[in-house]
Give the backbone structure.
Amino acid sequence: MGDFNLALVIVAIVVCVLVFIFNVYLLVNYQHPDDANQAYFPKFVVVLGLSVAAISILMLPADVANRQACRHAIYNGACNLTLPMKDLWLAVYILDAVLVFFVIPFAMFYYEGDQDKSVGKRIKSALIWVIMTAIVCALVLGILYGLVGKVDFTVRHLSSTTTNFPTNWEFSGGQQCVGGSGVHQCSAYLANETSEKTWTMRTTFPEYVVALATIIFGGVGIACLPLGLIFSFIRRPKAVITRSQYIKEATELGKKARELKKAADTLHQEERSGSKGRKWRKNVKSVEKELLQLEEDVKLLEEMYPQGEKAETSWALTVLGYLAKLVLGILGFIVSVAWVAHIVIYLLINPPLHPFLNEVFIKLDDLWGLLGTAAFAFFCFYLLLAVIAGAMMLGLRLVFITIHPMKWGATLMNSFLFNVGLILLCSISVIQFCSTAFGYYAQATAAQEIFGHTLESLRGIKYLYKYNVFQIAFVVLAGLTFVYYAAFGWRRRKPSGKFQLSS
């Protein structure tokens, strides 16, 4: 058992180092050339945020492995756990909240500040916005915590008389408890509903902050992540086009680019004149969508007509890339179906029909110590990717969400910061959802204590968990997204060309 604990510590340290190196690699390869050798503070925030998000997802499997080291203990308190998981959970999620609501907004305001201003003025302007945000958040959290920051546990008051110690132990359907002189009674077995009482206590402020953050969740991506990959293969270019076709398409794209530039210039003039109303924001959103569509069309045209000395190699890599998307999409679809089936079988039906994936993880652990833990981590990571994919899809379709696409070698720091904040925000709810969905496998863990008993008994939001609101919404959104992709996913979006600009 000591060897297992030592292995857990070594694995935890190695994984944290690998996560940090991988996030630095992502930053270097995704950043825009204009941000090279500058914007060091936003870059530090990006790497820190991505590392916190990844480590927070991996902490749930670590929590399970930490508890499994004590599976032979008579009771939980009889084992000295290797990692203080409850303290680590609270520390990571408080850091998560600080990054999302304070540090990342400050970095974005500072990065997007007027470049003509001095560094001091940009810091001052960013601090004013962050301080205002902090005051509002502190007031809201303080008022909510003061009024409803309590948990209501349902307990049952039990009492019974004493009896002599039995000489033999015989239990059956008619004798569930120890008894004597022909009387076999047990207050736990025979207690009526009037013995139930409510035990109220105030939760800690860190746990309350974490609990509120878990209600931000979406299930759209569980379907759009794999289906997006599959339909990307369906919409792929089937063959290389001729030079005349290339010239024709390139001319059309050039015309669209000039129209977009004219629209953008007009919007810039309206912004300078101070007319930034609802119509202006709607037009900005439309121009952003059209610009993204134009970039996709340019990329597709380059794929359909590869140029240069290695044109044939480029086309072969393009074909292999779309085949890889098809394979990953099919595998992802299988995982998504397993997720939805598990939610229906284990969470929505009471009592559960079967432990399903919980039992799969347990059997994998029996084959090799950390195999089930690795599979568990994979399903949690997949859910996080699905939630992010769903948020990105909604961002392209809702007017009130700003588009911040991630592109290899062309991602500005403000887009990086926005997406890191989104990932951090989603990671909290994903962990809570996973700890509930895999409650049988993750039982007796610190995550269960925080996200299970406390969260599901917290005043104000406990009914969301009591009536399975999140699980039902998850399945419904997955179904609606599947229907949407089945009906419209195979089509390529066409630019509208409507901007409603002022004369």
